[in-house]
Amino acid sequence: MARAKVEVFGAGSVKLAGFAKALAHPARIEILKILAASGEKPCMEIVGGLPLSQPACSRHINELLRAGLLKSRAYRNQIFFRIDESALKGFCEAMSAALHPESAPR
Fold it and tell me: 26-93 has which CATH code?
């Protein structure tokens, strides 16, 4: 199967597609919902809130981290995650501007 050449698209569209791809699984949406409700949670509490195995949850968390939608911090033997609110806000604003360029601030 042929792969799309992302080089032919603008950097803004490529970055926006990366964010959208990170959000393109229901487990990742649920992770964001869990974190939006709590502010910050250790990994195993996120796992406990989802009907998935720990390795599957970790893969989804890592996708969100790679996209820049989550931040993490280590404390003792746990890793805590929270939403990067500025990245999420930037994604929403960029998507709105891409879809409605006539109403984007100048």
Answer: 1.10.10.10
| pTM value > 0.90 | no
Q: In angstroms, how far is the first alpha carbon of the chain from the final one?
A: 41
Q: What type of residue is 101?
A: P
The structural domains of the chain, with segments of one domain joined by +, span 26-93
Cβ 64 vs Cβ 32: under 8 Å: yes
Structure tokens at 23: 């959000």
Per-residue pLDDT of 28-40, as tens digits, reads: 999 999 999 999 9
Tally helices (H) and strands (E) across the chain: 5, 3
| 19 CA to centre of own chain | 6
